Amino acid sequence: MNGRTPGTGFLRFVATGLGTGYSPVAPGTVGTLAAIPLYLALAPAGVIPYLAILAGVVLIGVYAADHMEKALRIKDPGLVVIDEIAGYLVTMFLSPPDILHVAAGFFLFRFFDIFKPPPVRQAERFFPGGLGIMADDLLAGVYAWAGLRIMEVLFL
Hints:
Elements: H1 9-15, H2 27-42, H3 47-72, H4 82-91, H5 99-115, H6 120-126, H7 129-154
């Protein structure tokens, strides 16, 4: 290999979360951090635009992740972090864009993404290609979303 990652430029750019997936340390965490500015830009837009952008991220994420998995010939390559971005956006749906919610959502999402309680891990294995790459993070985002709602009632 010539040191370049295979794949077309745009799909590689999307799949790696604008290049954050190339982080030598904790690319999933760095990719999740990259989602925060996107969330802060989307939060004031309202529910419909937020869901539309989230759907767009998921759809192009499935395609881009699938492309990268095939190009690299590696199942769920670590440099693909568009799934973390989509999962964080799921986590933060309907949350106010303040530092407490942003931080709590970040840590909750990372917790569920790393520990993958059932059926998160099973979703990754059940679905093929890019859909499997995205599915577990979307489910981790649902767990984190529920956790954030509970934290709002109890603490925030």
